[in-house]
Design brief:
- This protein is an all-alpha fold and about 290 residues long.
- Among the domains are: about 1-40; about 110-210.
- Helix content is about 80%, strand content about 0%.
Length: about 290
């Protein structure tokens, strides 16, 4: 194992030296700038993932958590198997499982927000169709007895007197297209609000049907992703079991060329997994852009 590690270290050093010598004085700066931009995009994306999952973290907090998870899993796999490539694969797989768990949590929170918005639209429709209260009083009812997920938002809107800025802040926090439509309808409605009842009724029916289709698609997507993840994990589990059994079958993979072959095989599987997940990605529902005056 010392020979393999030394070979990898030597090869990496030679590759870096060759790139630096071949690139000239300007090339390292360009590479450094590209790495900084990539790191900035990664930190931004992971911070957004953390917020969507309901976690409050700094700009680099989630990157640190994912990196620590990958390092711990990779170190544990290396200690068990004694193979650097399997350590790298285990680290990447651990980060993938963490990202997948965050995605499931974000999807659950999104469903809660969607249900809360639909419930708010339904309540507004019922209150306005009776004609007993106007829009302002209906919003006060939602702030007191509306969906738990949106009471804080409606309380802030009512406390601010229904100003456009308060609606804009609520739209940013809720981040649901239906809430954008609700905000737009309320901001342009007549003082009495009598015309909004039928509009909210049609919005409730169309959105409920759209959410049913979306959730069926998400369920099928989860099934396909689970199947692809299982296919990816089976060879790794087989290799881990063989390592635990100290099988001589893996002796060929403990050489330098065996490690390179194993790395290429696992890398191909990882790229295929990423492509499958990209193809299964559902398009995001477009938001309604409002200009608050």
């Amino acid at each position: 194992m010392n020979t393999v590690e030394a070979a990898f270290a030597a090869g990496l050093s030679v590759a870096v030296a060759a790139l630096v010598l071949a690139g000239g004085p300007g090339r390292p700066r360009s590479a450094e700038a590209w790495l900084l931009r990539a790191a900035d995009r990664l930190a931004t994306a992971e911070a957004g993932r953390a917020r969507a999952s309901g976690f409050q973290s700094g700009r680099t907090g989630m990157v640190v958590v994912e990196g620590a998870t990958g390092l711990l899993a990779g170190a544990a796999a290396y200690l068990v198997t004694g193979m650097p490539v399997l350590g790298l694969a285990a680290g990447g797989l651990a980060v993938g499982f963490l990202v997948g768990w965050l995605g499931l949590r974000a999807a659950a929170l999104k469903r809660e927000r969607q249900d809360a918005v639909v419930s708010a639209v339904r309540t507004l429709r019922q209150l306005l169709e009776t004609g007993a209260v106007g829009v302002t009083a209906s919003l006060e009812v939602l702030a007191e007895r509306g969906p738990d997920r949106l009471r804080r938002e409606f309380s802030g809107i009512v406390g601010a007197g229904g100003r456009p800025q308060a609606w804009a802040e609520a739209r940013r926090r809720v981040a649901e297209p239906v809430f954008d439509l609700l905000s737009a309808a309320v901001l342009v409605q007549r003082p009495g609000g009598g015309e909004l009842g039928p509009l909210f009724g049609e919005l409730e029916d169309s959105v409920t049907a759209a959410y049913e289709v979306e959730r069926e698609a998400v369920a099928l997507q989860v099934q396909a992703r689970s199947a692809s993840t299982l296919i990816l994990c089976l060879p790794l589990a087989f290799l881990a079991v063989m390592c635990l059994l100290r099988s001589s079958y893996l002796d060929v993979y403990r050489t330098l060329f065996g490690q390179l072959f194993l790395a290429s095989m696992l890398g191909t599987m990882a790229v295929a997994q990423l492509l499958i997940r990209r193809l299964l990605r559902l398009p995001e529902e477009p938001r309604v852009e409002l200009v608050d005056g």
